[in-house]
Amino acid sequence: MQYEEHVSLLPIILCGGAGSRLWPVSRESHPKPFIRLADGESLLQKAFLRAARLADVDEVLTVTNRDLFFKTEDEYREVNATGLATSFILEPFGRNTAAAIAAATVYVAATHGEQAVMLVLAADHLINDQSAFANAVEEASLLAKGGRVVTFGIQPDSPETAYGYIEADGTDIVRFVEKPDHAHAQQYVESGRFLWNSGMFCFTAGTMLRELAEHCPHILEAVKACIDVSPSSVSTGGGAQIRLEPNSFGAVPDVSVDYAVMEKCRHGSVVPCSIGWSDVGSWTALGDLATPDEHGNRVDGEALLVDVKNSYLQSSERLIGAVGVENLIVIDTPDALLIATRSRAQDVKQIYAELKSIGHEAYKVHRTVHRPWGTYTVLEEGPRFKIKRIVVKPGASLSLQMHHHRSEHWIVVSGAMSHRQLKVGTAGAA
């Protein structure tokens, strides 16, 4: 393949997740990157805009699940005012960060050259200081051009046990540490030598190819074999779209890039930074983004509180009333209600796991389900009937279905029926 001589910065957004830590708002089909914050933007949109605002960015490459592709495109379309080119590598299923980064690296090396600087970002993190972030990226880019594999270490302000740590000596990595208990986390913060592991990276495509070849050649070769047989096309965003072939992608080992490369890398560096970073990894972390009232409560939606302290309450539709409680998390959605103490926020994923094990659909989908053409919401359901509200995107269409054992009756509120298709020129519902 041909590639440009101009060395630009290519952000790689990794978009996925199980949707377990912020259940019931997040689900398997609607993971954390798609959650909207109070300002109306999703975490994914914020990640895209953060990348797009960096210097020398001509394109954004996203690695995501093929089932999330249309939602990702929709999210970008809402905020991509400048028409920045968007490319996609679509996974048939998740195989962890080593596979995702290896696939992105092989693609970038072939299309942009081995000198291209890649900036790997998570789709579901929050960074409040864009200027400090841009400065950290500039420093990391310089190190990357010198052959380093760079990670970003967050200056810790508390002894968090939900993050991994990096012991650093300047920009040199001394060691990686798995998520510690509270006592060790306290020691790390007090020492001044440890940073939170953000999971963001910067390197040239050539450097990462060499690291993969040295430390995990089986992953690199499996990814190359997969890309060789994977169909590619032009995305609606003007970039490439590669749909990874399922059988060959299934042969790629399921391991993290930290384990596969970073912990063994002899050319690793870290950029210590204070950028207002959060991985928004629990309801406590999400609630803390809001401004508390005089009693320490944070509310998203409509709530009436009497003698309530230090609690976070969120409701998308119904009024929440609470009396005489404290340190609670209450999350109300149309089909599921979560009540937890703030201290057990990290354990919400246990409910998700149990729902999945018993096959309850609440782990996977919301009552409103997103499709490439729009959404449908089940309003009422019984033994012999189901009522749905269907909203079709402007200009989109869907076909009527024929069933041998049931009939369908449509009421078109806005739009038109044409050749057994519901088509909408403007926003409409049926």
From TrEMBL:
EC number: 2.7.7.13
Pfam families attached to this UniProt entry: ManC_GMP_beta-helix, MannoseP_isomer, NTP_transferase
SUPFAM superfamilies according to UniProt: Guanosine diphospho-D-mannose pyrophosphorylase/mannose-6-phosphate isomerase linker domain, Nucleotide-diphospho-sugar transferases, RmlC-like cupins
Gene3D superfamilies for this protein: Jelly Rolls, Spore Coat Polysaccharide Biosynthesis Protein SpsA, Chain A
Domain Mannose-6-phosphate isomerase type II C-terminal: 360-417
BP GO terms, sorted: GDP-mannose biosynthetic process; polysaccharide biosynthetic process
Family: Belongs to the mannose-6-phosphate isomerase type 2 family.
Entry-linked InterPro entries: GMPP_N, Man1P_GuaTrfase/Man6P_Isoase, Man6P_isomerase-2_C, ManC/GMP-like_b-helix, Mannose-6P_isomerase_type2, NTP_transferase_dom, Nucleotide-diphossugar_trans, RmlC-like_jellyroll
Span of domain Nucleotidyl transferase: 11-290
Keyword Magnesium: no
MannoseP isomerase/GMP-like beta-helix domain location: 301-355
Keywords: GTP-binding, Nucleotide-binding, Nucleotidyltransferase, Transferase
Annotated organism of origin: Burkholderia cenocepacia
GO function terms (MF aspect): GTP binding; mannose-1-phosphate guanylyltransferase (GTP) activity
Protein name: mannose-1-phosphate guanylyltransferase
Catalytic activity: alpha-D-mannose 1-phosphate + GTP + H(+) = GDP-alpha-D-mannose + diphosphate
